DNA sequence: TGAGAAGCGGAGAAGGTAGTCCACTTTAGG
DNA sequence: CCTAAAGTGGACTACCTTCTCCGCTTCTCA
């Protein structure tokens, strides 16, 4: 449906099956290790040769867009839902929460949203679907007077990018800093939050560094 | 003086000269490209063979500690000076400013401070010199009641680590988000800051992504 | 059922980095 | 000045990743 390949040439049945195996393998590997996993690894996990992976997805974009376009679209829908909420602040907060949670569970997805420029125009376009939703939510928050006027949409993107580096499957640490930064951008109309999660320990810090190391 | 090599074996004069060439080359390359530059590149820039670089600095730590120990010590001194300031808030703020500025101008230095765990115990020890100063500054800020009680030293380390990803030689963007964070961690005793620097543009965002890409 | 097209995968070339080896050069010091 | 020790650097091995080539297999459809 989102896949133009099928329109051009109906794949032979075995080839179609292999394609699905590749997509599934890439989904797992991207989630675990990010978008830069070697094609060899993808082929091995899928049980096909490298050449087959290259034949089906000559550019890494092809694979990335195939895998993540739907997920970004889902998030965009969450953005639309957030716009339906009565409270502008809650809506914005909820959208950020959704976007961050999605990234927290999938390293590849986090890279799609924060470093799309590295993977070509098509990936940028894909990730860009979220932009208008965020812009609308920020605009509405401004009109409600709940965020300081000098903070814009791009600032939110930056702040979320920063938060990503605090994401780790075992801790909710990123929520703690999300709370700090939300406290930093509100007006006095919004009461301060209590900080979620405990202060990080030495071990937390180490884990994070190792996780984000190449 | 900080260099134990000279105590063990006085290097032959030509070897000592080469050693300095290597250190100088590594200083430049680390600053430009981070701590992971190939040894081949260091040798080439220094005008010596790779083998010479390996002979003098068999472990990358050796090179890193040689280069950065003094710089960390200097920063630690800035921390002591910050503790001398009358105002607890100004002192803490000034120290963070100093640490961030040092990292902004040198990618390698930023890695030493934020990812020391990747480069071995000796680098960790080196970077750890800053910890007690930060702890003292934070403690004093708590006593003065200028930062919220649930924020600790480790939080500052995390916040600075996040800010690093916003550092770019051409923009003062990181100061903008430093201001947001500081607004998020103060008590009401401290008045809000006006945000420095403009909102980031699309181009700023791209530049940052490309800068931090491997 | 048997071409012919479509698909397959291992091998291998190309390009990059870590780290070592050893024949050669330079220095120190008697 | 001459020699022994110290130092040198390029070539080399090992390893990893990307991407292609081509002989072989599998499917499709008449």
From TrEMBL, chains A, B:
Domain HTH tetR-type: residue ranges: 16-75
Gene3D superfamilies membership: Tetracycline Repressor, domain 2 (1.10.357.10)
Residues of the signal peptide: none
Sorted UniProt keywords: DNA-binding, Transcription, Transcription regulation
PROSITE patterns named among the record's database cross-references: HTH_TETR_2
InterPro entries found in the cross-reference section: Homeodomain-like_sf, HTH-type_TetR-like_transc_reg, HTH_TetR, Tet_transcr_reg_TetR-rel_C_sf, TetR_SbtR-like_C
UniProt DNA-binding residue ranges: 38-57
Pfam families: TetR_C_43, TetR_N
Name of the protein in question: TetR/AcrR family transcriptional regulator
